Amino acid sequence: MNDYSKRSYIIILVFVLVALVFLIRLFRLQVLDSTYKQYATNNVLREVVQYPARGLIYDRNGELLVYNKTAYDLLITPREVKAFDTTLFCNLLDITREDLEAGIDKAKKYSKYKPSILVKQISPENYAVLQEQLYKFVGFHTQTRTLREYSAPAAAHALGYVGEVTQNDINKDAYYKSGDYIGVSGIEKTYEAQLRGTKGVKKNLVDVHNRIQGSYLGGSEDIPAQIGNNLTTTLDIDLQLYAEKLFKNKKGAVVAIEPSSGEVLALVSAPVYDPGLLVGRVRGANYSMLESDSLLRPLFNRALLAKYPPGSTFKTINALIGLQEQAITTNTMFTCYGKGSSPIRCTHDHGTINVVGAISGSCNPFMWNTFRSIIGRSKTSAEGFNKWRHYLLDFGLGTTLSEDFANSLKGDLPTVDYYNRIYGKGHWNALTVRSLAIGQGELGATPLQMANVAAIVANRGYYYEPHIVKAIEGDTIRSSFKTKHGVEIDAKYFEPIIEGMSRVVKGAYLIPGLEYCGKTGTIQNNHGIDHGAFEAFAPKDNPEIAIFVYVENSKWGASYAAPIAGLLIEKYLNDTIATNRQYVEKLMLNANLLDPNKIVIEDDSEE
């Protein structure tokens, strides 16, 4: 055999060996190794996220408040997209060509290989039409969503709303991905973990026309979504609706609490808005409209965020502190005329009165003298002020009352350091900060805090943490809701205060067959008409409701806040308004305090 023949055999052998290696490699890849089989499967496999329905929300009596309706998202996977009829596409989805192009560009920047949402929250009606034509648009598919629906256009601030997650939300919790939704405010935010449920995944096989042919492996690899927990709130929706009705064309807030439990019966911030405005594809435009209203500020939750000076409703606390500190007794008498009316004047001449008369008549000089006596019992004004301030903290002012209310504020409660910075250490005293005695000056409290004060007085010295969720299906509420919080005021000192409050309720305030207690308040306003407030509870004995009403630009507490509070108490306890009081209801319903030309103000004999 010559050298040429040997070389030929060697070359042939090399080729045979190479071919054999390739055959073995192909056999392993195609028969033994499932990787490429899985890759081939993935070309016709589509994983669709299954979004759970959020938990339902009920009122305290089992009335459904918030439920879900179906909507759909259209997703795009840029790598898979083929040429399509953009005009037909835009008409089906009611979007512009500019919207489409911007959406595709955004999807490509996110990922050419991963699906991302192109059009959100398509209605079932539009989806039905789209689904018939979807096979024409390769690279696009849909996923099911649920949107919130409301049984009544009420309680928007209490319930809150749901919105798309931000990058900050995603960074905080790996559960969320771009395009997910999260509770943004109210109950939806506070109880997001319970309401949201758990996402699932469904694997579908699709054909070359992007049409679903069935479940992958018979659905054995699907992960079902778990729906969210249902919540029962403490709200009484009938009382809530009535309060919102009474606050039509007014600004302010109402908080009503069941004193024996701390359960919030109604929480209103006015002007109100329909929670349905912040659902669906119109949410963005509606939110911008509401947010841009700088005059009415409907999105601002006055019940939890407004730091209102409490005015004369604060006098109940000041008097209680005075009694506890023995700065005054039930027999202490102060005069409110002549020199006695200085440095804080009274709006009426009460003569010489005791603490019961001071509460019923809302006597400013009595409260100033009480405040001065409290501060003066200590060695220094700063020491006396700190003691007085400690009681306010005990009543829940200057603190966050409850974790059940997302973003609620502590209010304004000045400190010794604050006054030292303003006036200099040792250069201020009770006279310097005298406005605090009548709930003015640097003092600011939220309506939630003042409603809790009413509950404390109603209970003769204790309260339960105010909360708005009564029960969670499959879970428990916070144990702190059951903890009794006592204030450092002896129960006996509440009786003269309650007697004074019972005398306030007279004339138009009277409710047939019901004895209740209240305290009016007028709050100075340097920017226009004064504000009015009313703190109350009912019945006088074994109270079932404590309430605080604040009406902006209403001049006197007796003009609007007190009648509204009385109507709400009557509605809650009697379920109807007595015939001889329906004229009061009509006056409150028709009052328009947003139009200065229509404001009707009556003098308040108690301010």
In short:
By secondary structure, this protein is α+β, with helices and mostly antiparallel strands. It is built from 21 helices and 20 strands. Strands 2, 3, 4, 5, 10 and 16 form a six-stranded mixed beta sheet that branches. The protein has a five-stranded antiparallel beta sheet with strand order 12-11-20-19-18, sandwiched between helices.
Give an overview in words:
The protein has 607 residues and is α+β, with helices and mostly antiparallel strands. The protein has 2 domains: 188 residues, Penicillin-binding protein 2a (Domain 2) (Alpha-Beta Complex); 346 residues, Beta-lactamase (3-Layer(aba) Sandwich), CATH 3.40.710.10. The protein is built from 21 helices and 20 strands. Strands 2, 3, 4, 5, 10 and 16 form a 6-stranded mixed sheet that branches. It is elongated, with a radius of gyration of 34 Å. The termini are far apart. About 1% of the residues have low confidence.
